[in-house]
From TrEMBL:
Protein name: DNA repair protein SWI5 homolog
Matching Gene3D superfamilies: 1.20.5.170
Keyword Glycosyltransferase (UniProt): no
UniProt family annotation: Belongs to the SWI5/SAE3 family.
Length: 89
């Protein structure tokens, strides 16, 4: 609740709760689909953990690129070729 704007209404909160329920349902369906395709829950949990680790490492890399760009007075986009990075990385 601390991240809500001061004027958040009960209706807005109800909508947000419903959106979260819909996302949860979609994720449950996706998990069920993966399980039906033969993936184990342990595999899925390991994959999710690895994705989190990857995202943390990528965020740290982006932060470092940003700091380097500030020091050099360029944009991070200008640094990508120097480090053989693709814009989609």
């Amino acid at each position: 609740a601390s991240c809500r704007p001061p004027g958040a209404t009960g209706e807005a909160l109800r909508r947000e709760i419903e959106e979260l329920r819909q996302k949860e349902l979609a994720l449950d369906q996706e998990i069920a689909q993966l399980l039906s395709e033969g993936y184990s829950l342990e595999e899925l949990e390991k994959h999710i953990a690895l994705l989190h680790e990857y995202n943390d490492i990528k965020d740290a890399g982006q932060m470092l690129l940003g700091k380097l760009a500030v020091i050099r007075g360029v944009t991070t986009k200008q640094l990508y070729p120097e480090y053989d990075l693709e814009l989609s990385d």
